Amino acid sequence: MTWAGLAGAPFVTVSPIGIAIGHGTLPNNGADFGPDTTGTLTTGIQEALNAIASSGGGTVKLIPGSYNIGATIYTPSDHITVLGDPGATLTFKGSYTIHMATDSSGVMHSWIRWIGYGTIVNLNGFAAGIGDNSLNAPTTAHHLVISGFEVYGGQAPFFVAISTISSAQTGAENQYGHILLEDLYLHSFANASSGTGLLITNSNVTCRRIYIDGSTYPSGDHSILFCHGGPENASYYGICENLLFEQVHVKNNGSSGQVLELQGNGTASANGILRDVSFFDCVFDSGASSPAVAGSGGPFIDDNNGASNSAYVANIRFHDCKFVNCVMTYQSTSTFIGSITYEGSGPQTTATYPLGASGSLQGRDNNGGTVYTVSITVGTSPFAYRNLDGCWELVFVTGGSVSAITLDGIATGATSGQFRLGPGDILTVTYSSAPTMTKTGAAG
Q1: Which residues pair with 213 in a beta bridge?
Q2: Strand 436-441 relative to strand 374-376: parallel, antiparallel, unpaired?
Q3: CB 297 within 8 A of CB 258
Q4: Are strands 436-441 and 160-162 parallel, antiparallel or unpaired?
Q5: What is the pLDDT along the chain (444 residues), one digit of tens a residue?
Q6: Nearest CA to 198 among 236, 251, 157, 241?
Q7: Which CATH class is domain 2-349?
Q8: Contact indicator for 57, 77 with CB cutoff of 8 Å
Q9: How many other C-beta atoms can be found within 10 angstroms of the C-beta atom of residue 25?
Q10: Alpha-carbon distance 211 to 219, whole Å?
Q11: CA torsion, points 282, 342, 339, 205, in degrees to nearest 10?
Q12: Interval 265-279: pLDDT, tens
């Protein structure tokens, strides 16, 4: 993002006592970007952002100190960088927010960076968001970065909501450029009705090195990390795709809600698609002392929120993720769940495997819990079974009259038993009377 380092780009500094240092040409170069009243600094920050915007973009620096925020802050143009500091604390004194990609008229902007460098944010009643003041998705915004904030949620339902609630956004989520969230610590959210540390319903989002602590969430329906395809609060069609999570650690309270929820839609009437979501080196901790299902802290995959609509969840991949006391719960009344794979260890699963999820397996959880077994239809001898599930499998051969079993063309010397297959491996069974064959997930 070379725009942030252009020679002569304006740079202003804001402090709780009111200091401005101008570089380049600003309409109010040297003005006092300071407190509005004693103990409250809101207009000062907004005036600095407006001054930068009027000069075509630049950087606003918040120096160490306590900033008490008494109004909503907007991002007024493209090409704006806001830099925080480890010694800076922003405390919102009401239901105010930071609109990280939109101005006060709801116009969406691109090439925006909010870099906290350890800045602490105390929310009270609402949240920071990527979207307009109704949380509509920034369908025309791209290249957005939020990094380096430690956030205490207070009564806010979430920190960053990348979400859609209006028909105007229908199907437009996949038009995004790229959104990057990294190095965030989100904790102590306590919204009384429903809490979500991070809510994503839009496409092309990367999340790296994020810790979401939901251990203090109140009892009730909540999902600490929530991704879904349909609009947040409407019966419209939406697509959420191309999401990447790396080194994201999520913890629930062990008594209610979900540590992770992947859903095709936001409401029972929506018709959304959630697809192409990958998790690498992530940790999902239900917060419970023993394996827990959804509603008691565990994870949840749901295509349609219990309604017979056209919501889909597909192409979900977990690679080297750790599940702590998690039982993956599936809900599908319309059989629109498919291609969910675990490479490495996976969660425990409920007894009911989701209909329509052909070609997918669940891996064994970290506590050695049971997994669901899938039957293999045995064809004409010699029958060659190939692992196409993208994760390690255990294949069981029992009964029948088997004369030989080979694994990738190498004789095993066995005529029955269990065989561990990696992705792409081929198990060939030669028989005169067909055996019974089943498969189940295995830790990688």
Answers
A1: 187, 251
A2: antiparallel
A3: yes
A4: unpaired
A5: 233 333 344 666 665 554 333 333 333 333 445 544 444 455 678 878 888 888 888 888 887 888 877 778 888 888 999 988 898 888 887 777 788 877 887 777 888 899 999 998 887 766 555 544 444 444 566 788 888 988 887 665 555 555 444 433 333 344 455 788 899 888 866 654 556 778 777 778 889 999 998 888 877 778 888 888 765 555 556 777 889 999 999 999 899 889 999 988 766 666 777 888 999 999 999 999 988 888 899 998 887 766 666 677 878 888 889 889 888 887 776 657 767 777 776 777 664 444 333 333 333 333 333 445 678 899 999 999 987 755 567 789 999 999 999 999 999 999 999 898 877 789 999 999 999 998 775 433
A6: 157
A7: mainly beta
A8: yes
A9: 10
A10: 21
A11: 10
A12: 766 666 777 888 999
Q: Show Cβ contacts of residue 412 under 8 Å, excluding neighbours closer than 6 positions.
A: 405, 406, 419
Compute the distance between CA of residue 199 and CA of residue 205 in angstroms, rounded to an integer. 11
Length of the chain: 444
Tokens, residue 80:
């704006």
Block residue for tokens 């969840």? 313
User: Structural domain boundaries of the chain?
Assistant: 2-349, 374-441
